[in-house]
Amino acid sequence: MLNHQIKSSSPLLDKRGSLVQKGYATQGLLVYNRKQIKTPPWRIKEWDFYQVSNNDYCLQLTIGHVSYAGSISVSLIDWNTNRTYNVTKLLPLPFNRLGMPASAETGDLIYKSNLIDIEFLVFEGGRRLICQTRDKQGPPMDIDVHLMQPDLASMVIATPFDDNPRYFYYNHKINCMPAEGMVSVGDKKYPFEPDTAFGLLDWGRGVWPFSHEWFWGNGSGIINGKRFGFNIGFGFGNTETATENMLFYDGTAHKLNQVHVDLLAGGYMAKKKFTSDDGRFEMEFTPIYDHFTSTKKLFVDNCCHQVFGKFSGTAVLDDGTILEVHDLLAFMEHAVNNW
Q1: What are 315-338's pLDDT values in tens digits?
Q2: Which range, of 19-23, 39-43, 59-63, 182-186, averages the lowest pLDDT?
Q3: Helix (H, G, I), strand (E, B), or coil: what is residue 36?
Q4: How many domains in the chain?
Q5: C-alpha 251: how far from its chain's center?
Q6: 204 within domain boundaries
Q7: Considering the domain boundaries, does residue 5 fall inside one?
Q8: Domain that holds residue 283
C-alpha cells in the first residue's frame, strides 16, 4: 500500500469539517481547532493518556471525554503480584469543560476534585505527571514522574471514516520518553529510573461512529544501547491512505506497512505471532497479564483487553538494518466500544 506522508502544515479540517490532509506524519503538523468541527457537540471525543512502565509495573493516567461523559483515572499495575490499584472519577456531561489542549506538544492539562488531583505539565524537552488520590475504598496514591522527550519523531495520523465525511480521528503518539520519579500507593513505593522506564503519550481528538473497534500495540525499550520503540494498530477507520504502524530507533521514525496478528486465536493469553506484509515486523508475543476494563453507564458500553507481554523477533529499519528484539515488555490491546 502507499503510505501518504503529510509534510506541510495546514488546518486539520476545512470549512465543511472534513480532513484537509489524510495520512501520517512524524510531527504534529496539522492544527486542531474544535470550532471547525461540523457535527453535533455530543459526537466529539478527546483524551490524553499517559503510560509509564518498566519490567515490574505500569502506571496509567487518563483525562478524557466523549462529550456527554468523561473519565479521570489513574491505575498502577504490579506485574509481580498481579495487583491493580485504580481510582476513577466519572464526569456527567463535561463537553468542553476539561479544556483539552489543541496540541500534544503544548498546553498543560489540570483537573482537581475531592477524589483526585491530576496535572499533565508540558515544557520544552519533557513533561511532568503529578497526581494525588483520596479514595476511601483503597490506599491513597501520590505520583510525581518526569518524562524526558529527547526525540522529535513521533507517530501522527489523520484518519477518515467511511460513515461520514465529517468523522475523523487525529492521533499523536509519542514513544521512548525516559521516565524518572516515584509512585506511592499507601506505604509502598514504586520508583521509575530513566535507564529502565519509558513513558508513552496517546493523544486523541476526533469525531467517530458510535460503535467502533480497534487493535493497538505499543512498546519502548533499549536495543544496542539506543532507544527503540514501536506503534502498531489496525481495525479503526479507513487506513487506505496510511497505517499507524511505525518503528522508532535512536530518535528516527521508520514507517511500516500492514502488520497482522490474530489476537483472539486461542484466547488473549495464548502466544501470538506478529507478521507484516513487508517483512519488517516479525515477532512472537508471550502474554503475561490481561488488563481487562469494562464500563457500562448510560449510553457508554466499552470493554478493552490490554494484554501485556514480551515481544521477541526482528524489526527492520528503513535502511535495511535488522534489529534483534529480545523479551521487550510491551502490549497489544483489543477494544470494542459503544460511546
Answers
A1: 999 999 999 999 999 999 999 988
A2: 39-43
A3: helix
A4: 1
A5: 18
A6: yes
A7: no
A8: 10-338
